[in-house]
Amino acid sequence: MKPASTVVTKPPPATKPKTTVVKKKAGKHEDIEVYVEVMADTSSLSLDASQAETSSNWEGVTTSTPGFDYVPKGKTDVVSAVNGKFEIKGTILIQTSYGPMAKATNISQYGRGTTTEDEKSGNITLGFHESRHQIDYLSYLSSHALPEFTGKVGMTTDQFQAATDKFGSDFEKYQKDMEAYSEKHTDEVGYKRSQFLKSGPRP
Predict the structure, then answer these.
(1) Pick from 84, 135, 167, 178: CA 20 to 30 A from residue 53's CA?
(2) Could you give the C-alpha distances from 95 to 52, 75, 137, 203, in angstroms and in order?
(3) How many whole angstroms separate alpha carbon 136 and alpha carbon 139?
(4) How far apart are CA 28 and CA 185, in angstroms?
(5) Any idea what DSSP says for residue 140?
(6) Is the pLDDT confidence value at 97 over 90?
C-alpha cells in the first residue's frame, strides 16, 4: 500500500553524532574497553546514485587472547598458568552514507518506511529508514553481551586452544548476527528488501 496522500510526511530524523560505552571492565585476567560511535552522515561515490547504506565498522576494534604455561599430567598437558590478559579494545563506528543523488528526504523503497504503521505516521523517508539501522545496531550492542574468553588454569592445552578458537569464531559471528538483526528488523518488514530486489519498486 502506498502512503495515503492525506498523511503529512515527517522530516527524517537528524543523525546526532555521539559516543557511548558498550563495555568497560578491567581485572586480573581481562581488559575490555569498547565504545560505539555514531558518526555524522556522509556521501559516497561508491554507492549507486540513489542508494543509501548504514554500516557498522569494526576495523578499529582489536582483540587478544592470552598464552599459557603447562605441565604434563599423565598423557595430557594441563594449563598451569595463564600469561597475559584477554582484551577487547576499540571503537565500533556506525555511519550512514548516501549516494550522489540520494537524499534523506527521498521516499523509502522497502523495509522501514513502508510498513502500515510507518505510512500512517508519515515516517516514510529514506532518512527514517537509515535511522532505524542505527537504532538496531545500538539496540543489539546494549542487549547482547560481547563474546567472552573461557580459557583457564586446569584445562588441558587442547581445551585452552579450543577456547581461544571459539572466541575468535564467536567474535566474528557476533558482528554478522548484528547485521542480520538489523536486516530482519529494518529491511525485511513492510515491502521487504528481498521482494524489492526480486520485483523492483512497489507497483
Answers:
(1) 167
(2) 11, 53, 11, 31
(3) 5
(4) 39
(5) H
(6) yes
